[in-house]
Amino acid sequence: MSSKDPLDEMTGGNAAVGSPEGGAEVEVGHLPVMVDEVVETLAPGSGSLQIDATLGGAGHAERVLDASSPDGRLLGLDADGAAIARSARRLARFGDRVVLRQTNFGEMAEVAPAAGFGRVDGILMDLGLSSYQLSDVERGFGFRAGGRLDMRFDTSRGRPAADLLATMAADELAALFRRYGEEPFAGRIARTIVETRRHTPVETAEQLAALVERAVPAPKARRTHPATRVFQAMRIAVNDELVALEAGLAASLLLLRPGGRLVVLSYHSLEDRIVKRFIASEQRGCICPPEVPICVCGRSPNLRSLGKSRTPSAKEVTANPRSRSARLRGAERVAA
Fold this sequence. Notes:
alpha/beta; Rossmann fold; DNA polymerase, domain 1; 2 domains; 7-stranded mixed sheet; 13 helices; 9 strands; 38% helix; disordered N terminus
C-alpha cells in the first residue's frame, strides 16, 4: 500500500450505524461508500440487468434497484453467508427483481449465467470490508473488535488466519506481510510471532495486534495502528483476494454486453493497481510491434475508460471516515 493511502482497520466498504439503545445493528443505517458516484457511473436503467459482486450491507444494491425500477433486476453475490442473510432482509421489498447467491465473485463467470445473468448491463465490485465484518468477534477481522483470528469470508472454506500464524515459518510470514501489506517491518514482526508461539499460541486479534505493536518502533506521530498492514495482509492471504479480483475482472469481459459498465471501489494500492492495469490493458487495440506495417495480432479494445479515478468528497469522509481511502474506477464494454 502506498503512503498516500490512509490506513487503519476502519478502511472498508460500508459503515453501519448502531442503535441508540446500545449495540444492535440497524441495517437502515448502513452507509455505502460513494453511492451517488456508483449509481451515476453504472447508470442503471429500467429493465437493465446488474450484478453487485460484493453485496456487503446491500446499500449499493438497494440504490441500484431503486434507480432501475420498475423492472430492473440485480444479482447479488457475497462469499459471506451472514451478508447474504442480511441482504435478503434489506432487499425483500424488491421481490423477484433480486437474486442472491453465496459465492466468491471470483466464480462470477460460472455463477452469473446459471442465475440468468449471462449478459448484463452493469457490474459493481466494492472491495472493502463492511462494518458488520469488522465488528464480528467470531472472525477477528478488526483488532478493535478483537476475537478469534479466523478472517475467512466463507467460514466453510480455507484455513483460518490463526492456522497460518501457527504453521508458517518466519521467512514465509515476512514474505506474506511484505507482499500483501507492504509492511516495512515484516521481518521483525514475523520473528516476534514465531518466538511468541513457542510458548503461547497466537489465536486472537488482540494478541496479534499487541505483538505487532511490540515489534514495530513507535513513531513520533501515529496516524494508524501499526497492525493495520499485517491484518490486511492476513485477510488477503486467507481469502486469496487478489486472485479472486483478477478472476472477477476477467469475468466482467465475458458478462458485460456492449455498453455495459464496470465499476470497482478499491481501498488500498494493491487492489487499485490491479484494476488500473486491467482497464489500461483492455482498452488497448493493436499490440503489434511498430515495425510491422499492418496489424497481424487482430486485437481489438474490450473496454473504454470512463475517466480518471474518483475519490470521496470531503463531506462524505467527514460523515463516514471508513470511506476515505476509497478509489472508484469505471469502464465501459465496447463491441468486439
